[in-house]
Amino acid sequence: MAQLASISTDYYTRLEQGRLAGASPGVLDALAGALRLGEDERSYLFQLAGKTDQRPRKPTGPEGVRPQLQQLLDNLRDSPALVLGRYLDILAWNPLATAVFRDFARVPRLERNFLRMLFLDPQIRGRYTDWAPLARICVGFVRVTTNGHSEPRISSLIGELSLTDADFRTWWAEQHTSYETNGTKHLTHPDVGDYALDWQVLQTLGEQQLLMVMTAPPQSDSLAVLRRLAR
């Protein structure tokens, strides 16, 4: 193993026996290569070592949504829901999400990103009466998911938002991180006025996509509002 990873036998032995404080990212990279680890195994190795994998990620194509996940989305009759991909790209949505926010099908695919639309799309931004807290959460989430990597897709998005929005520029520079997965948000709609929705984010295994579901809080009139919007 030491030969394959191009490190000394003594160093590898002490590392394997837990007699070292930790390996550098370079050593971890060499060990991952020597062990022929897959992407998930490699990520787990770096996670165990408490280090960040500095290797550039391989370019990836457009993300897709499994038919079963799309069916689950469509079956959520009283709950607006979105499937979000890498860096909060909007991959799929149900009819009630269209009624609450806007017709995402009319948005060009490269612009169909929840973070981008939250800052740059007046219709999406205007739906939230408590916009700033949610926007800051999303900035923090993208900060976590980039994890030191700079794929062209995310670099372009961060660059565009940094140039066009002062709030994004400030929050991104703060290196704020967040992975909140639930809460309550206050929305407004020109046809129904103000209302509240609980939200939660569920992560799918394998594709690492997110299902964001919004529900009416108990003892509120939000369910009636959602049904009115659906009609």
From TrEMBL:
Pfam families: MLTR_LBD (PF17765). Signal peptide: none annotated. GO terms for molecular function: DNA binding. Residues 65-229 form the MmyB-like transcription regulator ligand binding domain. InterPro entries: Lambda_DNA-bd_dom_sf (IPR010982), MLTR_LBD (IPR041413). This is MmyB-like transcription regulator ligand binding domain-containing protein.
